[in-house]
Specification:
Shape: elongated
Helix content: under 10%
Strand content: over 45%
Radius of gyration: 25 Å
Oligomer: single chain
């Protein structure tokens, strides 16, 4: 279902949908395996755009949707090509629910330049994380119908909350009519929190990075196109009680044709 309505200076639109999946799987080899799972969820989208005075506008967007696990991720058969490093799906997995919100401010100047400020945030409920289980003794687990040998490690997926992120960007673009060129500059900060498991203990990995983009493009000739793109990124990746690392990337691209 969808909805759209325009007022004097406000535009509102939205969508609402329902999804349902039914998985049926029967196997005879290498062993008898049967699985029947159904998933359902709601996806939605809301957009509100309001015009302000002096060529300004503000926009709000919200999106949400479900991510269903695949048949392979639900398959509880143990992959034992390497008897000490085992992999398996998880028949108890739930569907993930992802939400993204964004607010954007735009200002058009008298000279045709554009200034944009944008803030967004995301959150995932029942996201997927890899969990490793180490066996100190021969252990039989019913849901896998398998005896895990002493000294082996099982890798499987589990649902987890706490996956979220945020992003803030400022950008400015201006025309240079004297040389038929466009100069764009953007700067922003992004933060991402991703939980994971190590030896059945939960940790959080955080990624904090700062970006600067500079793009210059000139169309002063119909036969020659000249552009320069510079990209700078620096940040910190850390996992509590495990490690921390810094990184720095910079690129300069010259393109002509």
């Amino acid at each position: 279902a969808s909805y759209s309505k325009s007022f004097e200076k406000i535009k509102i639109s939205g969508e609402l949908g329902f999804l349902s999946n039914l998985y049926l799987r029967d196997e005879k080899f290498p062993e008898i395996f049967s699985n029947k799972r159904s998933f359902s969820g709601v996806q939605s989208r809301i957009s509100i755009n309001k015009e302000l005075a002096n060529r300004q506008s503000i926009e709000f967007n919200y999106n949400s949707y479900n991510i269903f696990p695949s048949l392979e991720e639900l398959r509880s058969v143990v992959q034992n090509s390497n008897p000490l490093f085992l992999n398996s799906g998880n028949p108890d997995l739930k569907s993930s629910y992802h939400q993204l919100s964004e607010i954007k401010y735009t200002y058009y100047t008298n000279k045709g330049s554009i200034f944009i400020a944008q803030l967004s945030g995301s959150n995932t409920i029942n996201g997927l994380a890899t969990k490793r289980k180490y066996f100190t003794d021969d252990t039989y687990i019913e849901k896998y119908h398998y005896t895990f040998p002493k000294g082996s490690t099982l890798n499987s997926s589990v649902n987890i909350d706490g996956i979220w992120g945020s992003k803030f960007v400022l950008s400015y673009s201006m025309n240079i009519p004297e040389i038929n060129s466009i100069l764009s500059v953007a700067a922003g900060h992004e933060y991402q929190n991703t939980p994971f498991f190590l030896n059945e203990t939960r940790y959080n990995q955080t990624n904090s990075r700062f970006n600067i983009d500079i793009n210059y493009k000139s169309n002063f000739s119909r036969k020659f196109n000249f552009s320069i793109f510079s990209y700078f990124k620096t940040g910190i990746i850390s996992a509590r009680n495990i490690n921390s690392s810094n990184y720095f990337n910079e690129q300069l691209i010259l393109d002509s044709r």
